[in-house]
Specification:
homodimer; alpha/beta; eight-stranded mixed sheet; 32% helix
């Protein structure tokens, strides 16, 4: 059953946009590039396209692997492929690297043509709304006037929601997974500590570290370590690591002693070796800013009055970053607007990270919902 | 009612101990000093003494204020004083700065007589058990063979528990407030991020920053910011700060924007200006190590078999650092040993910090319990 369910060898593509993009901040990017991958085949009337929006550290490499790097498997390969919940036999699936990212799309590490140097800290603060604007141009380029579905987990789910508000006529279904209608004060607080770790790293150099030949590894490592705590559940950590000591006994030093320390530091080191600190800052800021209800005096019902899509909202029982309560806020607002909403609260021990995991119930819910979506168009 | 309930002007005292203290790690401190304060009067048979153990950032200045610094009010002044829940009309109350601290007792900032330089990173890693050993000598010095009660919140509650295990015959009542029988993997993870913020600060210099004329302010600030998130409840943050913007509108920069950011950075800056980073490291390590059940294959019931005291255990509904579940683990183990246990689960919005707050129900529980304690001796 699980044989041949990979999209196989994939390769990234690149799109260039020469029409200036005005950000919500007022900043203007005269020209930008987006790197993306596609899986499956766009049908004749271009009605079977799905856009996958990525979360904080994601990118365009959603599924499959590269010919020259067979072990570099896409971050959602368990979800996307022939016969998988997001079935590439039926759907034409697009993954892209967000503007401001560090995996090929124009971002802080890109060369600013006006200066000949990396944008660095001068790259505009980008919002979820700005991403949707950049993504709609990619849809235009591919001739997709309406997506069968836009979906994502966490920050990706926020982009999916924003699609339903910014371009209600261009998306039939929205899948919002492990997301929230806005960050709480506590969410922002965690992001602020992570940002401060980067901003105060002496190697940050005000965001222009590229020119100094250094990277703020210490800050980025701390940010990721902290992030990881909030992605996991306390129960999952207890089950996986508990109070196990690496050497079996206390060392009375500040070296790694508990297994959880070993795990966190490894995750921090790994992340800091490939991710860009300026991109990390931008991503956390986009999270903090997302709040469609803000311009409606905090009334989420009114914010969703513009939406026309059908929705599947999913949350995970042990996700304390964006708990099921937060998803229910979204569901409630959608219901108040008499939209078609399916909601699933999935029992999982893996906390916020659950949305990336192979989980039978979760995958079956996505599969069933998308089977309905695919029944609406001819292959 | 609230008039004249302060212990008034107090002054710190200093005790010197010349008998070498062997730490759990095997390290030996040939000589050490403890700074402490006392409130109230020790009765004739020395049966009315209460020892207050402090938490991570606490010290010996529990109540009252100093003649030369009237605004420097003790950290638990709302709890300790004449007519207050810990009633200094009835009890002789002792607060001390823990060994390894940075408020007067021998610690990393103290001069090591062998080198003529501050101990810095060479100060031994200190455990809750070591603290109890150092505290019992202070009791000896004051002629107190048995405390009416030993008590504390958070890490202070762990010391109180340890007293009942290390010196069961020397304490009649133990009050364990907002504590846990050991840290979870998640608790340790937060501590490890805080420690790494300090350890990787270029100004840390392997713990010997005193000699370099610098302090690892950045790391200590981050550690405290992170700590603060775990001391508060998500609800309290939401109520107090929500998503309020300092200037009323988004700034699209990394300056302070949300009120919660302002609060956290202020707390971080303030703390980093007076607290010692090496002490912070020691305190978090003592937290991580505390685990009386470890030598009993994780069986807390067996660990408490040594205890003889009566117990009051208190927890707070929104404390997610040491949740009520953790207190119930303690209560369960005490009950299995047929000890006298009172348990109170207090509804409070203030998270872990609740134990420091003025809270009527909480204070009444402490007051009522200690009234019983004071009825056992003659004033």
């Amino acid at each position: 059953m699980e044989l041949n369910t990979s999209v196989g060898i994939v390769s990234a593509q690149r799109a260039t946009f020469d029409t200036p993009l005005t950000f919500r901040s007022g900043a203007v990017l005269p020209r930008y590039e987006l790197v993306y991958e596609t899986y499956g085949t766009l049908n004749a009337d271009k009605s079977n396209a799905i856009l996958i929006c990525h979360a904080l550290s994601g990118n365009h490499h959603v599924a499959g692997s590269y010919a020259d790097a067979p072990k570099n498997v896409g971050w959602w390969d368990n979800m996307v492929g022939p016969g998988k919940p997001i079935d590439t036999n039926k759907f034409f699936v697009i993954g892209l690297n967000n503007l401001g990212g560090c995996h090929g799309s124009t971002g802080p590490i890109s060369i600013n043509p006006e200066t000949g140097k990396p944008y660095g800290a001068s790259f505009p603060v980008v919002t979820v709304e700005d991403w949707v604007e950049s993504q709609v141009r990619l849809a235009d380029l591919l001739g997709i006037t309406q997506f069968a579905a836009v979906l994502g987990g966490s920050l990706g789910g926020m982009q999916a929601m924003q699609w339903s508000l910014s371009y209600p006529e261009r998306v039939r279904h929205v899948l919002v997974i492990a997301a929230a209608p806005h960050l709480t004060a506590e969410n922002i607080a965690f992001n602020d500590v992570a940002r401060n770790a980067i901003l105060t790293d002496p190697d940050f150099h005000g965001g222009h570290y590229y020119e100094h030949g250094v990277v703020p590894t210490r800050g980025l490592r701390l940010a990721r370590m902290l992030g990881h705590i909030t992605y996991l559940s306390g129960d999952a950590m207890a089950d996986k690591f508990g109070r196990s000591l690496r050497s079996g006994k206390l060392g009375f030093s500040y070296d790694i002693e508990f297994e959880i320390e070993s795990y966190l530091r490894y995750q921090g080191d790994k992340f800091a070796s490939y991710f860009d600190a300026n991109t990390y800052l931008l991503m956390t800021k986009a999270l903090d800013y997302f709040d469609p209800a803000r311009e409606f005096e905090g009334n989420l019902d009114k914010a969703f009055a513009a939406a026309r899509a059908d929705f599947l909202v999913l949350s995970f029982s042990t996700d304390w970053r964006f708990s099921p309560d937060r998803s229910r806020e979204i569901v409630s607002a959608l219901l108040h607007n008499r939209l078609n909403v399916s909601y699933g609260e999935i029992t999982s021990t893996h906390g916020h990270d659950s949305f990336l995991m192979q989980h039978a119930h979760y995958h079956e819910l996505v599969r069933a919902y998308l089977a309905r979506v695919s029944s609406e168009f001819s292959a």
